[in-house]
């Protein structure tokens, strides 16, 4: 582009006055055509943004025509059902990508692998029923991820493995019944998590994730309502308000099943027990790293809500005891004051009572003498 502009200026300087205008117009028309060719005809482009949304497109426009400096690509409100694996190869400068309100039902594993600078990815309101565990590979700068209003039934272990910078995540409006805690533990900087409008089953499969949610809230994060669908006695109730004691039977089930939760939707394989088990002599010794199917075990607080409740109850009991002690002390002071006042009045009345008794004795003596 700049090469053409420079050539046009040099050529205009070298022409005569009569032909100057004609040659300049031709060169600047050529320059204009070149600029127009750097944006697909269906899109509206600026120096850093390309808006290709709301055109009911079935296939992607010619994104290869976009300049490499584009930072925002908007593709919402179209009819995309799939994306080619090389859709965003030449757009490494992208910071924001919006694919919301389409009909995407499947995404190639490495479709976003070239977008190392992407911080905001929206896949909201599509038809995704599953996500490949390698879908987010290469997105090392991702901060916001919206996959709400899809048909997801699970979040695969490893999908969020390298998303340490993710601060905002929405999984609302899917078909999630349980989640594996180990899939979310890499999110060290997560501050906002949306999980509403999912058919949650508040059983042992959700126990460990409940503890992780409480830990996220304890360190200042936000989680919206996680309302139970099953069992019936918990329907409509936020699992965060369910006492941890209701999950005590899960420990018994774990012990009866040998401590394994491998057959559950939300359970995790006990790494310590798996790694300490004796290996047969013919077994191949693996590397010192964890097994592929072994969920990483980290600190798991029993229940932050329970700890806070214990502190509150202890404070209330101590307050009541203090109030009772103050009341008893006040009652003792008042009683002692009343008794002292009564004793003073009694002492004042004793001389008067002595004079009355003396007069009564003298009258009795006069009566006896007359008699």
Automatic annotation (TrEMBL):
It holds the Pfam family LRR_8. One of its GO terms (biological process) is positive regulation of synapse assembly. It is found in: Cell membrane; Membrane. It comes from the Eukaryota. It is a single-pass membrane protein; Single-pass type I membrane protein. GO terms for cellular component: plasma membrane. Its main location: membrane. SUPFAM superfamilies: L domain-like. Residues 1-38 form the signal peptide. InterPro entries: Cys-rich_flank_reg_C (IPR000483), Leu-rich_rpt (IPR001611), Leu-rich_rpt_typical-subtyp (IPR003591), LRR_dom_sf (IPR032675). The chain crosses the membrane at residues 307-340. Residues 352-371 are annotated as: Disordered. Residues 198-251 form the LRRCT domain. Keywords: Cell membrane, Disulfide bond, Ion channel, Ion transport, Leucine-rich repeat, Membrane, Repeat, Signal, Transmembrane, Transmembrane helix, Transport. Gene3D superfamilies: Ribonuclease Inhibitor. PANTHER family: SLIT AND NTRK-LIKE PROTEIN 4-RELATED, SLIT AND NTRK-LIKE PROTEIN 5. Belongs to the SLITRK family. This is LRRCT domain-containing protein. The lineage of its organism: Eukaryota, Metazoa, Chordata, Craniata, Vertebrata.
